[in-house]
Amino acid sequence: MTRYATPKQILEAFQAMTPTEHALLLVLAAISIEGTCFTDPMDLIHETLYQCINGRHKWALPDSEATVDTPTETSREQGNDE
């Protein structure tokens, strides 16, 4: 079952982004802006946040059971660098 972020979770995630993540988001917004009514990438980001916070767009949360395919500290300690 898909779970969706609350407005509070959306704002917290945006505020917790690093400067590098914000810069990347601006680049992606600039690439995606073509064909919209927006001329400034930040306007597109703000509109997306606005729609998510007001429930017009749902922000799906990652599946909590999803696993990342990277070696764990335990497997590295045992010499199992996969």
Mean pLDDT over all positions: 83
Strand content: under 5%
> How many beta-strand elements?
0
Envelope shape: globular
Low-confidence stretches: 65-78
Write the H/E string, N to C: HHHH
In helices, the fraction of residues equals 40-55%
C-alpha termini separation: 31 Å
> What's the helix count?
4
* Helix/strand/pairing category: mainly alpha
Radius of gyration: 17 Å
Tell me the major beta sheet.
Answer: none
List strands and helices in order, with pairings.
Elements: H1 7-15, H2 19-32, H3 41-53, H4 73-77
Give an account of the 3D structure.
- It contains four helices and no strands.
- The protein is mainly α and 82 residues long.
- The chain has a domain at 7-61.
- Mean pLDDT is 83; it is low at 65-78.
In a nutshell, what does this entry contain?
With 82 residues, this protein is mainly alpha-helical. The chain has helices at 7-15, 19-32, 41-53, 73-77.
Search tags:
82 residues, mainly alpha
